[in-house]
Write a structure and sequence with these properties.
heterotrimer, A mainly alpha (327), B mainly alpha (295), C alpha+beta (486), A: 327 residues, mainly alpha, MetI-like fold, 2 domains, two-stranded antiparallel sheet, flat, C: 486 residues, alpha+beta, D-Maltodextrin-Binding Protein, domain 2, five-stranded mixed sheet, 15 strands, 40% helix, 17% strand
Amino acid sequence: MSAKTSMAAGERIATSGRRARRPGFLRRWREMGPMARKEALSGYFFILPWIIGFIVFLAGPMLASFALSFTRWNIVGDPRWIGLENYRQIFTRDPDFVQSLEVTFRYALVFLPLSTVVGIAMAVALNSRVRGVGLFRTLLYLPSVVPGVAATLVWVWVLNGRYGLLNTILGWVGIEGPNWFRDPQAAIYGIVMISLWGVGGSAIIYLAGLQNIPEHLYEAARVDGASGWQQFRFVTLPMLSPVIFFQLVVGLIGVFQTFTSSFVATGGGPLQSTLFYMLYIYEKAWQSLRMGYASALAWILALIILIITVLVMRSSPYWVHYEAERK
Amino acid sequence: MQAELDATRENVQLGDGRRWQLPRILRGARAYVVLLLFVLVFLTPFYWMVATALKSEVQLFALPPAWVPSPPIFENFMQVFREVPFGRFVLNSATLVFWNVLGQVLSTTLIAYGFARLRFPGRNVLFLILLGTLMVPDQVTLVPQFILFAKLGWVNTYLPLILPAFTGSPFLIFLMRQYMMTIPLDLDEAATIDGAGRLQILRYIIVPLCVPALVLVGVFTFTWVWNDFMGPLIYLTDPAKFTVSLGLGFFHGARETSWHLLMAASLMSMIPPVILFLVAQRRLLGGLAAAGLKG
Amino acid sequence: MKPHKALKFATILALLALFMVACGGEPESVEVTRVVTETEVVEVTRVITETIEVEGEQVEVTRVVEVPAEEEPQEPPAEDEVVTITWWGTERGRDTATTRELHFQLARAFEESHPNTRVAVSLFPSGGFGDRVLTAIAAGEGPDVYYHFWATDIATQGFLEDLTPYIEASDFDPQERWFPIGNQRAVYEGRYYGLPRDATAGAIAYNMDMFDAAGVPYPEEGWTIADYRETAIALTDRDNDQYGVGAIVGSPGCFQWSSFSYNMGAEFVSPDGSEVAGYLDTPEAAEAVAFCLGLTADDQVTAPAGMQEQFGELVFLSGNVAMQHISTWELPALNEQAEFNWAVVAPPRFDENTEGIAWTDSYVYYMNAESQNKVRAWEFLEWITGPEANQIIAESGVWTPPQPEIWEAMGWSEDPILGVFWNELNKEARVPNYLRSQYYFDCVGTIFDDVWTRYTELGETDVAAMLAELVPPAQACLDDNYASQE
């Protein structure tokens, strides 16, 4: 069938000399067999809704914000073209840019691994075949349904230095907790906790992945004498890798856009220790009405995320296992 | 890896002797302990929400804080309805949620199928663009997008809050694509040989196997749209069209906040998504595993 | 090399150098202090004469600035043409239904006396309201009239209608109609860009029961900051969760949202909002900041951090806070909820030889410069800030109107509680520091947070040194922001 046709075409190109580079769009289109062409056409057909949405709703605003990053624009007036000035300023004399980037990266390095481990652990627990597990799933999903502002405000309470729940409990075991959102060392961990509270959302994605692993693989592994850990390592993890890959990419995009918790709980302080990149963009855009500058910041962020995402995607053939993958 | 899996598959077919395992009851007990621990850690902050929702206004400000509201003021929940037209807001949110869930389920299924199981030139680049749209922060596209919708004359209607759902959320498309990529290709190929068209394959083979992912799409869409604050805030002008999330915002002022009412209203607003989840989570059971197709 | 070639070469070099200067590094920084001495409007250009001090020498410079061409006044709609204007406001977080009711009541009352104008009211959550307004204005969908708390110099951004000509054409005197703060908040460089919605002032509420129990005499008008501190210490009993001072004055808000800094002779930002250097790095400023920090970190008389941010002034309702800086905003809650005896006293002055200075503030009504219904919008603005509307507002109790006449008519000026605020509102008014510059929270506000953290958490005690370190970057930030407007 079609797979073979196009593979033959692919081989021909690959062996036809010069460089083993992917051929251009037109070249590939011309060399396609009728079946492959039909498959490609239906491919475009299926993704058409997204293409339309992209062109109608997204492309314009995105291009506009890119163009605006070369302007001065106070939102309400007319933008004025200033070339690379915004970028020049960001890279040469904007300490807050460096600070917010650093905060965001530090947060990402703590939060991403933590949320992956806790998310998978929670999903494994929720995957138990015990009575009432549905109730537990709901209970653990509950925090991610709490409206953002209310959730943050609850945590401001929980993390109060003198009267907060956490420090009270820590006090019982003789630990004196920090003054969380007032302490420049601790504040970012407070934000990590707020975000981690909503990990139920990603846990159920892992759960759906776990549920999709056929029981017989485990049975077979047990027959081979695999311990619980080995089953997890050699069956669960590889079978879950597409989901982990998804969570990693989405998580990356998400951590770089963390906003509400720092906006509501700390406003970026103390000592700018929670000045997240998005918070900084927000301040420039809406407090100082420098939307052009904010757009430049935003596009730098997009580029950073893009590079990291591409790196992660490049790495995926080495660790992500798909049942249905054709090159 | 694949070889290993294949080897185990082999073993299953031959498999007979089971190893000794913990008795079922004990295994269950261990699971409960772990689950209870999770619940304890994750729901303790939630307790604070409930307690706050039941406090009198004076109790809210007690120093040191009162852990248990005494007496609990259930009246606070009624008070929410007197302060804001909460019922109206719920109906409005429900309308938005309905169309969004419908739109996302339809569009993500189609789009993800295209990206996951069909080959076409430019697929990877397009997919990267799709992800790329997530990477540019909303903050800076918000105003141009608003201007666009204003030019279309859609401000103060639900259209800007509904129509984009029919073009798929990149996050959900990606989620769906990942799920579809765990379904073996031989299924489609077998069906193709049987003469099924691609829409039929999607409808009769892929969709039934993707129920868990569809459930996730539905649940996430519901939760986001239900809690979305910025969208309705920016696009709606007429208070009669306002949503639950805006209603909650009414209790959180620049200088003052009605803590008890904010928490009571937040709790009530959580009921629909939680009930939905309680019902839907049963369907998270793997389509493949359930259908026994992978065995 | 032939001469003309050399010339050419030199020209190219010079051009290159020019180009590099133009695109390249910063111009050399020169100490420039600028004092605007007079402004004079001449037809379409404004002549600004200013004295600039360049490295010690006084230079008088005259700038001619083009005043945006006066737009043709909008053709008034025919008397009998029914026009709908939009009016946006925010909910306040408390008494939601009452607040909404008041807005509708005002709109209906206006429509009754102006039958050809309809008012469409939209009340939004206060979070994100500024963004909402700006986004709408950017798309030409902005409201005709709205209220907000922009800094006064936001007028430079050009989206606020200059209301001066309208006021001049009317037959009321703004200075007479509104409290001093109402006029100050609405004015930028001598022109009205808004009208006051309300007027509030700061005062100290105190828990009489706690004073009685501790045998401490009640504070009296004319008390000093030293008295304030002593009283706070006398009434604090941390082991029993009793605090002399509650929120705001026990937090970074002490610097900003109260009269303490004024009374200690400190101004943090220049009146026009552009300078922080020379204001926040003075000994007076350091003293004011150190006073606030001392209350929390050294005397430990303030309610715990975090409680304050969350509960604001209402932490007073706990009954465990002896003194609380409040404004008229908190009165409805205190009247309704307080389960103890309380009273209000004027904020402490600096010492026996000085007059107390008040902290006052107000929301401001603005007209959208892009409004299509300016004539009717002005009618509404004039009405809503005038006696009829302010009477309705006063009776509703949602906020305190900006019109002294109404206060007197309501008997508030004689009221034991409101009378204290009345006195404050009639004192000399200053635009609060945080409302002088639209870039305050971007550039200046963080200083207080930083000093606070370094003093209370990291144990640094030299406030003057910290301010000296933090002010120059803040000034650079302001300069950069203002430069970005040019």
